[in-house]
Structure formats: structure tokens, C-alpha cells
Specification:
The protein is of the alpha/beta class. It has one domain: Aldolase class I (TIM Barrel, Alpha-Beta Barrel). Helices cover 38% and strands 20% of the residues. It contains eight helices and eight strands. It has an eight-stranded parallel beta barrel, surrounded by four helices. The termini are close together. The structure holds D-xylitol-5-phosphate (DX5) and zinc ion. The site of zinc ion (ZN) has 6 residues, from strand 2.
Length: 218
Amino acid sequence: MLEISTSILSVEKENATKTFYDLEVAGTDYFHIDVMDGKFVENNTEKIMYEYANIIKQISNLPLDIHLMVEDIKENIDRYIPLRPSIITFHYEACRNDEEIMKYIKYIRENNIKPAISIKPKTDIEKIKKFLPMLHMLLIMTVEPGKSGQKLIPETIEKVKELKKYLDKENLETYIEVDGGINKDTVKMAKEAGIDIAVAGTSIISTNDFKQAISELR
Ligand code: DX5
Ligand code: ZN
């Protein structure tokens, strides 16, 4: 069954704790934490996301799915290790070379966290193929990273199809996650293309019935 990772980027501070509690009751599979540094992307959410992740850790045992949209990857991995996230995803485009990528994959794994790489809409699947056997998951961005509430870029679904075909051919079990502009309509194409996890922010958080929103996505 399709897993849902709820992006808490647009959760308001005043009712954050209650919202997280409600999301767990509503059946989210993960909490998706969007860490932005004001350098890799324009927005800066470092402080608020760290605060939110800490609140979630106090009230829930659900897994954290950390999405690092940052230039200083090591520093941010170190910041989140004590919170024992399930998955840490960093961006291919934030790395200088293959050695650096390998170093982070190894470091995340050594800390018993599942490593994942994310690629922006314009980055080709070819670029990350060699890392797939070492990765728990590949996150294909379906919008330009940086903010919630954007429209899914249809061409990104072609990348999901291409990746799924390649994983099957190579007998690899790497998960595919998509992130950005996922709602009950767009999720269909993504599902058909072969995703395992869908990240959704606006289409869940902006409703007043999280349970309904999550089950519709699934
Ligand atoms: C975009 C973030 C996403 C996004 C999801 O940079 O990584 O997680 O906020 O929000 P929606 O579902 O509103 O596109
Ligand atoms: Zn994200």
C-alpha cells in the first residue's frame, strides 16, 4: 500500500502540537520535515523544523522523514541524528562530487538511519544510478524545492517511470518517493508510475479532515 509522508512545512506554530497529534490519529505513515537553509533554497526553515521535529519526538513514535534542502549537509545530519529519524535525504545538487555523496551515504548508514538522495526536477536519473544500490530511497522532486503549495511538474512523472523500470531491471529494492504538488488527482499518475511513498503538505494540512485527505491519497 502507498505510504504517506505528511509535510509539516505549512503547519502553524500556534496549533502545531495538536496538528501533529491529529496527523498521527489520521494515519500518516511519516512526518516529512523540510529543512531549508536560505542558501540551497531561498527560504530558511532550520529553526522551526528543528523545533517541530522535537515536539513530534515527544508525542509520537512515528518515523521522521528528514528532507535536507541545505548546502551544509554534514552539519544538518549531525543535528538530526539525536532525534533518531528513520530516513535522512540530502540533495544530489548540493554535493560537489561522488566522493562527497558516498561519504554522506556511509555516515548516515553508520548511524543506523536510512540514507536517501533527492534530485530536483531538471536533474537526470542517469546521474544517480550508480548510488542506487547503496540507497534506501530516491526522492524525485515533483516541484522545484523551496516552498509548499506549488503545482506538480508533469515531466517529473516520466522520471519516476524511468527509475522504476531501471530498478526492476537491476533487481533493486530502492524506494521511490515523490514530493511537491501531490494531491488526490496527481497522486494517481505517480502511483501508476511506481512510487512507494508520497509526500503531501497542502493537500492534507489545508483540509479540516486529515483522515479523509490521507485515505483519499492512499
Ligand atoms: C518543497 C518541499 C515539499 C513541499 C510539499 O520544497 O520539499 O515537501 O513543501 O508541500 P506541497 O504538498 O504543498 O507541495
Ligand atoms: Zn520535502
